C-alpha cells in the first residue's frame, strides 16, 4: 500500500541492523553521522559495501545506486582501476614529506580539460578549494564584497539556502537571484571583488544556468573589475571541458573536486597566471607570496588514483552518460505527464537529475517516493536527487523507469480510491 506510514514501517522492519548502527552512532556523532546530506527519517540506511552501480546495506539488501555519492562516485563502486592504483601506492611508500612528480602530472591533466585553469593548487575538498579561490580573488582585487546566488552551494561554510546558513564564513556576501540578469544587474558595483557561481546548481535543485546568464556575469566581471569564479566541482563531469567549455564562457578562476579524486578526498583551485602567481615565491620574492600549505595537499594516495581514473573520463564516456541521463529524465517526465500526476517534476542536465515535489504535502510525497524506490531496490538521494555513474546501463535505467511507472500507477489508483470513497 502506498502510505508513508506503511512504507516507513516496512523500512524499519527490514533494516534492524541499520537502526542499531544509527542509534549507536547518535551516541557520539550529532545526527548519527558527519555528513548532513545523509540525514533521513526515521534513520538512514547504513551501507556496508558497493560494487559497480550497486550498494549493499548492513542488513544485506542490494540496491541499484542512483545517487552515485552525490556526483562523486562517477566511476561506480570498487572500480578495478582504483584498486590497481591503490596497490601501486603500497609499493612506493606514502606520506614521504616531499614533492612528487604526480602533482605536475595531475595539474597538466586538469589544465588540458578545464580552459580557465592555467595554473593550479591542490587541497582536499571542494569546500576548501572554494574558500581559497574566494580569498585569492579578494587579495588580488583588494576588495571585500562577494556576489553569490540564492540556493548556491560552495561547501558547508559557503552556502545560501532559502533559510540562510549561520555557519557561513564572515565574508561580505551579496546574494543575487540565480539565472536572473534582471535580478542581478542592480547589485553590481565596483566594490565587488569576486563573483562565484555554479553553472548548474546541484544542491540548489539541479538548476542549470543559461548561457546568457553566465555570459552576462562574464561581461559584468570585466566591467567592474571583479574575478569571476566557476564552481565546477559538480559540473565538470557534464562535459570534458567543464560547462565553461561546453558553453564557451570562460571564468577567471575555477574550482574542481568530488569525482576527480576517484573516491578519495580531493579539491583544486586554479585560474589565470597573474592571479595564481600570487602563490609563487620565485616570482613574487621571498616572504611576499601567499602562503598555502596543508599536510595532505597533493597527497600520493589521491593523486595516484586521480591520475588513473582520469583515463576513464573521455568526451565519449561523458557523452554516453549524459545521453543516458537525458533519456532517464525525459522518459520520467513523459510518464508523469501521461499519467496526469502533477505532484512530481524533474530538472537537470545530462547525468544529474533533480526530482521535485509540489502540491499540498510535497514533503510527504517526497518521502513516499523515496521509500517506495528503496522497497523496490533503488537508492536515490533522500531530498530527490538522481545521479548516474559510468557503470549504469540502459537496462538499469529501464528498471528505474519501470519502478517510477509503478509508483505513479499505485499512487494514482490510491487517489482514485480515496476520491470514490469521499463521494460515497
Automatic annotation (TrEMBL):
Alphabetically ordered keywords of this record: Pyridoxal phosphate
Q: Gene3D superfamilies attached here? A: Aspartate Aminotransferase, domain 1 (3.90.1150.10), Type I PLP-dependent aspartate aminotransferase-like (Major domain) (3.40.640.10)
Q: Which domain of life does the UniProt lineage start with?
A: Eukaryota
Give the cofactors, semicolon-separated.
pyridoxal 5'-phosphate
Which residue windows are transmembrane per the record? none
Q: Which family does it belong to?
A: Belongs to the class-III pyridoxal-phosphate-dependent aminotransferase family.
Q: What is this protein called?
A: Glutamate-1-semialdehyde 2,1-aminomutase
Amino acid at each position: 500500500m502506498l502510505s508513508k506510514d506503511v512504507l516507513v514501517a516496512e523500512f524499519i522492519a527490514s533494516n534492524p541492523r541499520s537502526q542499531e548502527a544509527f542509534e549507536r552512532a547518535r551516541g557520539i556523532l550529532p545526527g548519527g553521522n558527519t555528513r548532513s546530506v545523509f540525514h533521513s527519517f526515521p534513520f538512514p540506511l547504513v551501507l556496508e559495501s558497493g560494487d559497480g552501480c550497486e550498494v549493499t546495506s548492513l542488513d544485506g539488501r542490494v540496491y541499484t545506486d542512483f545517487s552515485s555519492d552525490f556526483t562523486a562516485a562517477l566511476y561506480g563502486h570498487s572500480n578495478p582501476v582504483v584498486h590497481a592504483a591503490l596497490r601501486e601506492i603500497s609499493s612506493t611508500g606514502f606520506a614521504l614529506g616531499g614533492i612528487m612528480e604526480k602533482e605536475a602530472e595531475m595539474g597538466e591533466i586538469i589544465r588540458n580539460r578545464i580552459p580557465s585553469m592555467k595554473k593550479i593548487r591542490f587541497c582536499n575538498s571542494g569546500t576548501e578549494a572554494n574558500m581559497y579561490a574566494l580569498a585569492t580573488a579578494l587579495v588580488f582585487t583588494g576588495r571585500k564584497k562577494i556576489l553569490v546566488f540564492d540556493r548556491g552551494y560552495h561547501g558547508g561554510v559557503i552556502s545560501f539556502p532559502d533559510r540562510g546558513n549561520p555557519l557561513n564564513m564572515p565574508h561580505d556576501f551579496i546574494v543575487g537571484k540565480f539565472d536572473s540578469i534582471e535580478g542581478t544587474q542592480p547589485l553590481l558595483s565596483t566594490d565587488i571583488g569576486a563573483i562565484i557561481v555554479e553553472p548548474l546548481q546541484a544542491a540548489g535543485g539541479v538548476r542549470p544556468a543559461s548561457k546568457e546568464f553566465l555570459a552576462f556575469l562574464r561581461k559584468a566581471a570585466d566591467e567592474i573589475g571583479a574575478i569571476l569564479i566557476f564552481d565546477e566541482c559538480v559540473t565538470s563531469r557534464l562535459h570534458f571541458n567543464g560547462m565553461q567549455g561546453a558553453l564557451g564562457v570562460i571564468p577567471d578562476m575555477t574550482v574542481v573536486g568530488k569525482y576527480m579524486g576517484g573516491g578519495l578526498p580531493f579539491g583544486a583551485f586554479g585560474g589565470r597566471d597573474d592571479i595564481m602567481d600570487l602563490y609563487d615565491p620565485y616570482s613574487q620574492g621571498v616572504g611576499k607570496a601567499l602562503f598555502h600549505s596543508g599536510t595532505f595537499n597533493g597527497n600520493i594516495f589521491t593523486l595516484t588514483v586521480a591520475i588513473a581514473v582520469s583515463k576513464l573520463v573521455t568526451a565519449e564516456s561523458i557523452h554516453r552518460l549524459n545521453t543516458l541521463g537525458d533519456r532517464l529524465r525525459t522518459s520520467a517526465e513523459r510518464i508523469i505527464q501521461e499519467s496526469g500526476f502533477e505532484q512530481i517534476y524533474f530538472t537537470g542536465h545530462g547525468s544529474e537529475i533533480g526530482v521535485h515535489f509540489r502540491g499540498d504535502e510535497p514533503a510527504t510525497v517526497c518521502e513516499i517516493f523515496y521509500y517506495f524506490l528503496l522497497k523496490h531496490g533503488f537508492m536515490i538521494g533522500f531530498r530527490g536527487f538522481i545521479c548516474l555513474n559510468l557503470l549504469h546501463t540502459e537496462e538499469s535505467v529501464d528498471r528505474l523507469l519501470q519502478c517510477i511507472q509503478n509508483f505513479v500507477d499505485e499512487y494514482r489508483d490510491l487517489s482514485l480510491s480515496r476520491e470514490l470513497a469521499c463521494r460515497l
